[in-house]
Each structure stands twice: as C-alpha cells, then as structure tokens.
Write a structure and sequence with these properties.
alpha+beta
Amino acid sequence: MEPGAPSATVSIRPAGDEDRPFLFAVFVAARSEVLASLGWDERAKQSFLRTQFEAEQRDWRRYHGVQDLVVLRGGEAVGRMAVAEDAQEVRVLDLTLLPAHRGQGLGSQLLASVLDQARRSRRTVRLHVERGSRALELCRRMGFLHAATRGGTWLMEWTAEASS
C-alpha cells in the first residue's frame, strides 16, 4: 500500500519503532469490551494483551512483504493497518481504528484504496473478519465474498472479476 494514500481525509505512513506504544494502544482498544466481561484485574489484562500483541506481530512475519502502517486523519494517528503484498494477493492483516474514529467512513476509504491498487495490478484481496463484526457488512458492500470459515472468523475474498 502506498504511503499517503488514499485521500487528504485519511492517510497512512509506515510505522516505526517509536509507534509501537500507539499500535499497542489501538490493539488494546479493539479488545477492551471483550476483556471487560472477564472480570480480570488490570495487571492480568495488560499481561494477556501484551502477549497477544507480540504473538500477532510474530505471526505476521510469515507473510511476504508485510507493511505495518499508522492510519492518520488530519495528521493525527487514529488507527493501525497491516498489509502483506505479493504478486498474486494483497492480504489485509489488520485494519483497526480507535473507537472515536469508527463509523465515519475511514475504513471504507482505506479499503477502497487497497481495492483500487489490487484492481490495477490484477491481484486478489483477502482478509479475515469476525462473524459478528460490523466490518463484515462493510466487506460485503465492497464486493468481498465469503471464501472460508476459520473458528469465529470468515476469510473474505475480493477479485476484480467478481466485483464487476
């Protein structure tokens, strides 16, 4: 994914080591509701979340060409995105916005940019979505189709041919 894309409203830049605390904060924000229901103390939650975050980072290394990106809105960091690209596919590993920035079309703009790039290069776009997630409807609207089920997530797939 090209830094700076997709528009003046929302943009991306490569994440550096200095962004790790922010990326972790976004990771935590995405899981806070689920963890709140478990009744764990703050120390247990932080330990669990840190372990999960590090495992996710290690897991992403198995993909070729992974880019860890910071999502910006008006220059302010508002989310994280991770994309892996090769000659056949673009895999969106993560697209998470801080709660205050959800539901405002930013995710749609980012995904539209990914799809535009994939269309030009004739590649497939794949991503996993939790079955109960609001993102599932967004994916369907953008032309993604359900390709497989893995646990509580669906593998969604987009091709230029299927979306025409």
